[in-house]
Amino acid sequence: MNNFLYSQLIEPNLDNKGTFLLLDDGKSFSYEEIISIASKISHKLIKFGLKVGDHILVKAPKCKETIALYLSSIMTGAVYFPLNSNYTPIETNYFVKDAQPAFLICEESEIQKLKPICDEIGCKILSMNVNGEGEITDGLKNFDSYFKPAFRKDDDLAALLYTSGTTGKPKGAMLTQLNLVSNANQLVNLWNINHDDTLIHSLPIYHTHGLFVAMNTTMMAGATVRLLKNFNLDNVFQAFDKSTLMMGVPTFYTRLLKDKRLNRKHTKNMRLFISGSAPLLKETHKNFYDITGHHILERYGMTETNMNSSNPLDGVRKAGSVGKPIKDINIRISVTEGSEVLNKNQIGMIEIKGPNVFKGYLNKLDQTKEAFTKDGYFITGDIGYFDDDGYLYISGRNKDLIISGGYNVYPKEIEDVINENENVIESAVFGIPDNDLGEIPVAAIVMYQKDNKLENIKSHLEKNLVRYKIPKEYFVLDELPKNIMGKVQKNILKEKYNKN
Q1: What does pTM read for this prediction?
Q2: Which CATH number fits domain 401-497: 3.40.47.10, 1.10.10.10, 3.30.300.30, 3.10.20.30?
Q3: What is the pLDDT at residue 164?
Q4: How far apart are CA 8 and CA 445, in angstroms?
Q5: What residues have CB less than 8 Å from 28, skipping those under 6 apart?
């Protein structure tokens, strides 16, 4: 038998009676129980005609059965394709047409709306509701609790995750068995995840962070997951006493900081807080340490590569940095794609090579070719630099770069200066067209006191930045537009404030 994911995540836990999932209703399920459910689902899907290599599109709620369905895809050798459960039928149609799944799993209420597109491509559609009930789980007691895993090579596809990348419509990033296993292995060792750990999991499970970083590492270590359906402050505080790990996005930590219950006593049992998917403000890092005594560990990853770098478990965790390259992963900074490699403290394009890097974009050979340099490095679209100690800093997305009067303006550099003001909660700098300079930088700012004048911020910027980097306009907002992973959606800001 050769199935890398199965041998690393499932096989060691076949007889594991230790707790795997702790749910919101207080019920708990062992590894053995969830694997049994996964095996039964596997037999059922095979009976329905599932073949090795088929795509399974899962647009289902966050519950134990969805986790079992992921394990089932590993057992059967299918390609697991999780999709945001909040997408409308119209949005979902695009992904069905592009990925051509053999099965689509969704809530019963969506069946009639999605059935026409499934019928068009010959995709079977099965229901699974928020409580885990539905056609996918009906009659599981009639199936065997053991399933012999399908043969899969290390470079065979294991998962399909869609990303917008830097341009165009969403593209399917093809992730292999090796991509997922190698990355999870390194993270388990790097963060010392072990069977005594309990992870607070309030992330979505259709994203690389919540599924592959959180679930794969937990299963590899035989640890426990406190599976929260969403980020709920009451549930998180309740979980602190019996948990040791938390993986989250910056929004989670800013919300925790606003809650008066956050203190060292509540977090004394926790050993590690991890943040990713969006930049963590230095202020958030500092304030969280001041209140809890914990330095948040920030790391850097993306859909096409899983995790690339991380601050250390033991050692200096630098605020504002995403740490050093993970073992076996090479990261370099180039002037432009695949050109001259830059020295430390020089800003350029971040390029990555390693066993974590995806196989390519589904059915898009040209875009796959464009995404890699001639010597095999993946061009991330992120701009950044290494400091003198080898720590990586992200300066922003290449598409967010502002070219004003021929000068390159990096938004994050300006945001960092703005955010130093004690009245600023967060900011977003972006470019809008200008007839004279081509583009000009402008700033959207969220403040504690909205009526507070901007003169102090402007004065501070003038003292710290050259003139062409200083925003020409300021917009004070109640909040910045963000996606579910906490990333600021600058495209929305650009559309709103574009005067042309």
Answers
A1: 0.87
A2: 3.30.300.30
A3: 63
A4: 46
A5: 19, 21, 22
